[in-house]
Model the fold of this input.
Amino acid sequence: MIHEIQNGYVKSETHAGITTIEFFHPQSNSLPGKILETLAKEIHFAGTHSETKVVILKSGGDKAFCAGASFEELASIKTEKEGLHFFSGFAHVINAMRKCPKFIIVRVQGKCVGGGVGLAAAADYAIATTGADIKLSELSIGIGPFVVGPVVERKIGTAPFMALSIDATMWRNSDWAKKKGLYAEVHENISNMDEFVSRLANSLSHSNPEAMAALKKNFWEHTSHWDTLLTERAAISGKLVLSNFTKEAIQKFKQK
Done:
């Protein structure tokens, strides 16, 4: 199934027990609200789909994995309610990923920013290429990684999360991300990465679904409050995005 969205798309297909969900946007796979909404729905559906044994989440193209929030939409937010609604989109995707009873493999083929780091952190197993550098750039435009914070901190630890959040303009390379636990595997090129993704997904598609669901429940223990927590965090970002600092920073970014 393909959902056409604002020059981009979200598509989902299932073969031999493996459901692949792919998103794309021409602006370095940034995430407008409609793509976030559709991703959350497709991930939820995959979790309830009896034929699905394992999920692969990926983005289109061979360059950036995800540039994070859509700057076009950030610039258009006029009220706290609109801000809450937009940033809740990230909350819904992360919560859909953690609650999905199937393992989710995230394929990271290139640079990963902001909300994209959140997607990688919400993976049960993230596989990347050597070019998959990461950055939490939110503070540089006057907000912060509030919604993705809990999932990133959970995956890599408090000190590395603080470093990423505070030095918001510095890229960390894929080796750093692997050492901190964000990536389980890093491969030299896309071909090698895809071979590994395929091998792991095929292996999991033949594993016991009940055992995998029970394991996943254990892996995500102590996160049941995130439905509320991430929405509260979305409200913080939704308020900060209205500040003059953020509006000016976004305009400067768009003019580059």
Q: What stands out?
A: The chain has one domain: 2-189+224-255. The chain has a mean pLDDT of 97. The CA atoms of residues 93 and 188 lie 29 Å apart. The chain has eleven helices and nine strands.
